[in-house]
Amino acid sequence: MTFNLRTIATIKRLLGQHPFAWAWVGLIILSIIGCQSGVTTNPQFSPSSGQIILGTTARIRTLDPADAYEIFSGTVLYNLGDRLYIADPETGNLVPQLAMTMPVISNDGLTYTIPLRQGVVFHNGSSFDANAMVFSLQRFISNEGSPSFLLGDVVKSIVATGDYELTITLKQPFAAFPSLLTVPGMCAVAPNVYKIGAGQFNPDSFVGTGPYQLVQSSPDSLKMERFEQYWGERAANPGVSIQFFTSGANLFNGFRSGSVDVAYQTLDVDQILALQRDGQSRGWQMIEGPGNGIHYLSLNLQQPPLDNPLVRKAIAALIDRPLLQDRVFRGQVEPLYSLIPSTITGSRPVFQSPYGDGNAQKAKAWLLEAGYSSANPLRVELWYRSNLTNNVIAAQTLQASIHQKLGDLITLELQGVESATAYQNLDKGVYPMIMLDWSPDFLDADNYLQPFLDCSQGKTPNQCESGASKLQGSFYFSDRANQLISQSRQTNNESMRLNLLNQLQTLVAEDIPFIPLWQNKEFLFIQDRIEGGKLGKTQKLNFGRLKKQL
After folding, report:
1. If the chain, 550 residues long, is cut into consecutive pieces of 10 residues, what is the mean pLDDT of each piece?
2. What is the dihedral of CA 179, 185, 190, 193, to 10 degrees?
3. Is position 267 within any domain?
């Protein structure tokens, strides 16, 4: 898995402020990295069976939807379970899954009434109904797992108002709530298998309603088979075996040898280039799609010299995204000019026009206006996560580029830190400027703005005492930002909401608590014997579309 702010913030939320709590963080992180289920069987599929072998370097910490909060576990749950709604892979628009229609929303925006699908059964043969959906969502909140706050912070009550009707009442209006319901962990689970209660998890098993059912689990593999009683479209293959590789090199070699049908998350830059180069002669396919993860700089607005807006403007102008795209990633990322990636409705490239890329002229003018010169150069630290190779190279590339453009006018001092340590100290104001990444919980612009800009308690200028911006290490506080976030969440008028989101993005470009850097791309490699591989806007791989030619 990739450690980012979401992961560590969740740990901090669970640990609270107990004086000895962080003594356990290292053990928790080690368990996340190496977490594996306890079943020791290693499923083997017959090559002639039509079953798919998928290789990945990801790991599964838990398969319990109420506790799973890593990217690849979400992909697995996406295929094993069903939610009320999903994002259409082609358009990104919401479509009903276990719901029959889009919700009926009360005039005050607080109550969502959702009719449910009938004739659905769980993998163990028990029936799905409104009570089962209430159980599943309430368990998501009450068991206090890693992602529980996603629903717990916004939902007041969940009740069955009919055998196949669900009514959810929110604490306050939240226009993106239907999108939130697409989170893979908010799937239906069988009430006669699971329990409600803090910490009551089933990490090694899964019983839901999806197109596949889990049949075996081990430290190095998972096996799922097609669920023949599935209510929806039948999976094109009889099953999928997920093989967990210890390194990208092993996954790379496994795919090249043909022992892996599909390679998915994660190969490094050189491995992707090699597979791309050899694809035509070797017959395999490379499928590329825009990712939804972003990388950015978080600027500590409380700490000199970054408390000076002119300094922040100069740094924003000096960032050369096409250089990073070409030299560091060799085309395997996209330049990012907003905290909202281009794949998400409402994104605007607000950093592109006022700052550009590597604009030495603008940067020099702002630094001179701020009182800096060759005799009095700007010195600022750039921290990066030293365990992530692309962060190391990106930081070094930025340092060399800035020195080449402005010489002695600015000194960018590089400092490396392990990911776990970085996130432990982020809200303590340790880092003047640090390179981070973000993977969304759900595909809506709100999830790229509120977790960065919201400050529940603070004072001007930039003194966030409690809230998302403190967790991000920027300590940004703006009454205007808080108002725009609140207004954008309360309106269900799409044009009004887009206008508010535009204003929020513009405010970020003006105040610069963060500087967007690049947007991920996703890569999927498929052997020529496999059909149906596709990466849509959601970047969730649908296992059920894969089919092996026998």
Report:
1. 48 40 40 36 53 96 96 96 94 95 97 98 98 98 97 98 98 97 98 98 97 94 98 97 97 97 95 94 92 97 96 98 97 98 96 98 98 97 96 98 96 97 96 97 97 92 92 96 97 96 98 98 95 85 94
2. -160
3. yes
547's tokens = 């089919």
Domain residues for the domain of 70 are 35-284+527-548
Nearest alpha carbon to residue 201 among 140, 283, 256: 140
Alpha carbon dihedral 338, 343, 345, 349, in 10-degree steps, equals 30
Q: Contact 298/474 with Cβ under 8 angstroms?
A: yes
Q: What string of H, E and C letters represents the secondary structure of 466-480?
A: EEHHHHCCCCCCCHH
Q: Which amino acid is at 411?
A: T
User: Does an H or E element contain 322, and which?
Assistant: helix 321-323
CA atoms of 301 and 461, how far apart (whole Å):
9
Extended beta strands in 116-207, E state? 155-162, 165-170
* Residue matched to tokens 């330049």: 335
CA R_g for the chain:
24
d(CA 372, CA 361): 14
Tokens standing for 150? 């996603």
Flag whether 408 is in a domain. yes
CATH number at residue 543: 3.40.190.10
d(CA 210, CA 228): 10
Q: Reduce the DSSP state of residue 55 to 3 states and report it.
A: strand
Alpha carbons 291 and 294: distance in angstroms, whole number: 8
Alpha carbon of 115 to those of 92, 162, 166, 195: distances in Å? 22, 9, 6, 25
Residues 495 and 541 in one domain: no
Query: Can you tell me the distance from the alpha carbon of 83 to that of 95, in angstroms, rounded to the nearest whole number?
Result: 11
Cis peptide bond N-terminal to 266, omega within 30 = yes
168 contacts 114 by C-beta, under 8 angstroms: yes
123 CB burial (10 A radius; 0-12, 13-18, 19+): buried
Measured between alpha carbons, how far is 511 from 462 in angstroms, rounded to an integer?
10
- For residues 183 and 84, give the distance between their C-alpha atoms in angstroms, rounded to a whole number: 10
